[in-house]
Design a protein that fits this description.
This protein has about 120 residues and is mainly α. The protein is about 30% helix and about 5% strand. The chain has helices at about 35-40, 55-65, 95-110, and strands at about 5-10, 15-20.
Length: about 120
C-alpha cells in the first residue's frame, strides 16, 4: 500500500513541504519568522499569489514602512519618486546653473541626501 501526501517532512526533518493549505487557527502562533523576513524574501512569483484583504493590507504596510525615501541610504534602497526633468547642458561643459539644477532635482526626488 502506498500513500501520497501534499504535506510532508523530508527524512532527517530539515525540510517540511506544504503542498496543500497551511491553516493557522485563531490563537495559534508561528515563531521564527517576521514580517521583515517575509518582505526581504519576496520574489516576483509572490506577486502572483493571492492574499486575503487583511494579509495584503498588512504586507503593504510593512513594505511601505521599510521602503521609503527616509529609509534610503548610500547602501540601502528606499522607495523614491522620479526626479524632475532637467534640461540638457547646451555647451561642452555644464554651467554652474545647469549642474545645480540637476542636483536640486535629485535632492527633491529623494535620490540624493541634501547634505544639511
Amino acid at each position: 500500500m502506498s500513500y501520497n501526501t501534499k504535506n510532508y517532512t523530508e527524512q532527517g526533518g530539515d525540510k517540511t513541504v506544504i503542498g496543500g493549505t497551511l491553516a493557522i487557527e485563531a490563537g495559534a502562533s508561528v515563531t521564527g519568522i517576521t514580517t521583515a523576513t517575509i518582505v526581504d524574501n519576496l520574489t516576483s512569483d509572490d506577486a502572483t499569489k493571492a492574499l486575503s484583504a487583511k494579509q495584503g493590507k498588512a504586507l503593504k504596510t510593512a513594505v511601505d514602512a521599510k521602503y521609503t525615501a527616509a529609509n534610503a541610504t548610500e547602501a540601502a534602497a528606499g522607495l523614491v519618486k522620479m526626479a524632475a526633468n532637467v534640461a540638457l547642458a547646451v555647451g561642452e561643459a555644464p554651467t554652474k546653473a545647469e549642474f545645480n539644477a540637476l542636483i536640486t532635482a535629485l535632492i527633491a526626488a529623494g535620490l540624493m541626501d541634501s547634505g544639511d
